[in-house]
Amino acid sequence: MASYLVTGSSRGLGLALITRLASLPKSEVGTIIATARRDNSAQINEIASASSGRVQMVKLDVTDESSVKKAVGVVERQLQGKGLDYLVNNAGVTDWSPTGLEGMDNLNEVLNVNVTAPHLVSRAFLPLLRKGEKKTVINISTTLGSVAMANAFRPLPTPAYKISKAALNMLTVQYAQQYADEGFTFLAISPGWLRTDLGGRRAHLSVETGAEKAVEIIQKATPKQNGKFLNIHVPGWEAPEGADQYDGEEIPW
């Protein structure tokens, strides 16, 4: 029974990840810790009530170091002496700048949430992860953060988001390199273009599909994949027209 912690669980992909994990057998998924800035999410509380104690809500503002440290203490008590197996850094924000770089006025804010916060959370939870069996950290990224694919996504006016996710990918690699000898697995995963508040209604995939396919990668992750940037696999989406495809392969940096 592996334990999971997911940041940004009150909506979107985070909520879908918690829902998907809670639907899996207890023999596969044990404790599921859903974190968010506010601990009164009606949907999370509903899932928790129906989970027989498996889903537990923890208040966590990923950008506030004191909140992160306090959450570590709460989670440690909830795990009752056991380690944390999987940490999923999912919380994130995007931007919209129709005039491109000249209109990009929130780069620091986006970098803080999308890059600094995953560092703060990962660093703080390392002691609990060391005690876990899986020692796996997942950073939710995107193909928009691929420098090699930048030209394909040039029309999308989200420069701060693209820059921050490219930085998150490098953060993933840095952690992967430093903690490889301890048996850790650090992965960046692109869950696809999803119909969420962030992705919009025109997106390719339902958030449930993105969560299901991301969980498949997470559960199969091994130290041999440490430091990889992986795409989800959705049958029928292996080679569509355009840059968006979901073939389950590595994404170029």
From TrEMBL:
Coiled coil: none annotated. It holds the Pfam family adh_short. GO terms for molecular function: oxidoreductase activity. One of its GO terms (cellular component) is cytoplasm. Belongs to the short-chain dehydrogenases/reductases (SDR) family. This is Short-chain dehydrogenase/reductase SDR. It comes from Penicillium bovifimosum.
